[in-house]
Design a protein that fits this description.
globular, 23% strand, 222 residues, alpha/beta, Double Stranded RNA Binding Domain
Length: 222
């Protein structure tokens, strides 16, 4: 592994560990919501799930951090399946986005923007640089999603990120999930993390983590 890749891996792990520490110190709920969430949630029936981005790292006894692509792909599949199951249990119609051809090209700038928005939400509403007004006036947007959602006959799109650190010591697992409607407004967002309780490589463990994250998410029509 090159120095560049090793430094990037260490940066990702460091950012996640920072998020863990701020979550531990934060008394606020683990979810954030747009001021109009309660009203707009009632119109959500069909959900389009974007395949999650998952990174699973192996930490050696020499503290070497390396991204494991096979584990990451397993975690991606497990997390996607768990998210689909989680929304089905809440009586939503769900579809998994198969981004190919024109859809893939349409999704590329959306996913890039979500990456930036995701970092901003975590930094400014979870910490360490918390802006209280960003929590009370939770107003983030990904730009219009209307075209893609209409193609799949869905009302909202779900984006997720997952992280897992596998080592001889305590493991650290974390995921974030955002739901945005056709306007692109991020209506609801949640982060959950654990130390040693979950493993994204295990389907049952991934389901348990998603169930915990969605525990406060309303059923369809509520």
């Amino acid at each position: 592994m090159t120095v560049k890749h090793r430094n990037r891996n260490m940066l990702v792990v460091g950012l996640v560990l920072c998020l863990f520490s701020t979550m531990d110190a934060c008394a606020l709920p683990s979810w954030r919501a747009n001021p109009e969430w309660t009203t707009r949630a009632k119109d959500l029936r069909a959900i389009l799930v974007v395949p999650a981005q998952v990174r699973i790292y192996q930490v050696s006894s020499e503290a070497m951090i390396q991204l494991d692509r096979d584990w990451s792909e397993t975690g991606r599949r497990n997390l996607a399946s768990a998210i689909l199951q989680g929304f089905r249990h809440r009586h939503y119609h769900v579809k998994l986005l198969n981004a190919e051809g024109d859809i893939q090209r349409e999704m590329m700038p959306i996913l890039a923007l979500f990456g930036a928005v995701n970092k901003s939400i975590q930094l400014h509403t979870y910490g360490p640089q918390i802006f209280p007004d960003r929590i009370t006036d939770f107003d983030y947007s990904l730009g219009s999603l209307k075209g893609i959602l209409e193609k799949f006959h869905c009302d909202a799109m779900v984006f997720a990120r997952g992280f897992d650190q596998v080592s001889d010591g305590p493991r650290k697992t974390y995921m974030s999930l955002a739901i945005a409607d056709s306007s692109g407004s991020v209506l609801w967002y949640c982060v959950k993390g654990s130390r040693g309780d979950h493993d994204l490589r295990d389907p049952t463990s991934a389901v348990n983590l998603v169930d915990t994250l969605l525990s406060d998410f309303p059923e369809a029509g509520r």
